[in-house]
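All the exercises in this workshop are built on plain-text protein records. Sequence and backbone structure share a record, each on its own labelled line. The question running through the whole workshop is how a given chain folds. The record below serves as our worked example for the rest of this section.
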Amino acid sequence: MNIFILTAGSRGDVQPYVALGQGLREAGHLVTVCTCSSFESFITDHGLNYGYMNNDFIKLVDSEAGREMMESGGTFFGLIGAMLKLLKVAKVINKQMLRDAWNSAQAAKPDIIIFHPKVLAGSHIAEKLGIPAIMAVLAPAIVPTSDSVAIGFPNLKLGGWYNKLSYKVLHWGYHNYDDIVNEFRQDVLGISKFPKSTSPIETVNGKPIPVLHGYSGLISPRPKDWSNTAYITGYWFLDRKDDWRPPAELVDFLEAGEQPVYVGFGSMAGRNPKKMANIVINALEKAGVRGIIATGWGGVDARILPKTIFKIDKIPHSWLFPQMSAVVHHGGAGTTAAGLRAGCPTIVCPFLVDQPYWGERVYTLGVGSKPIPQNKLTATKLAKAIREVITNQIIRQNTETLGEKIRKEDGIANAIAIIESFI
């Protein structure tokens, strides 16, 4: 089977799909991953074909406007305002992404398309080619339920009617892109307009699109009223290559003292990464713990770090996290999964979208501290949370138990079985 995977965003939006693609390849399928061009070597290094997509989405996230959006994530209306400011430029970027995806799909000649909802082209290309489409998401963010409010919306606790309404509003938001989507459908694909009454999880004739959720039901249980076309498979982990070796300096640091605390915010930092770095360094010192800082957000000068803190760039979480006493991060789905799988007590400092959700799940499950939103983060608050999670024996036992259960799941195998059932 020839499988075409569409995704876009940061590494956290790409790596799980590469893991899924690698599993599909090992199951005998031909796999092409189409995403931003900065990930081409990452994809081909894992034995998958690469489908070109421009890198403008990554540039937008890393722009001043993108960083402003990250800082607005503390409130619903702040995030909506920032997204509306970006709408015009986002349309230009998505217009080209639609065409890039189509060009890559034509070259790949797929039998099925698996797509992230950020890439608007997925279901439309599948319709043109007359093949199945499956949406694949990393959070319970798009299938309606009365059990809980849609991610990113205020949790007003008004009951099931309000929760369902939040999903209708979310789905309506996709129609902001109707002009470029319909231009793509008519002028490029040669098919009819997409009806305004149709949601992003439906085909043009109203048939539901299957939705795979690449996370564990142990962390976010299946809502009781989901349709039978929504699936929770378990996480899609991409483990390090067998020939990977850690830097000698890092190994020496780990062996020189007590287990450190990991701190990394991925590509998240807002407009003042140096301030964020100073908060983290001061918090580790206040907590009296050794630390490892991942420098994705910049702002750290290794020459002036205390000897108790080690700076790293990119180290596989599957190798690093089992050696940590705790992990502090932004609450991205992949990083949260890696920490919990390793049995690490977790502190989430969320920026936006699904990150506050994962932070609340960590706290509710008793495997970490109450999340600290990035716009309220201080060295004192972070130091207090670190001391809490490394000294609280209940939290530590909960994380060990949950980690054992997650390690027994096989989300990739579950997803492959579902995908194969649609052909």
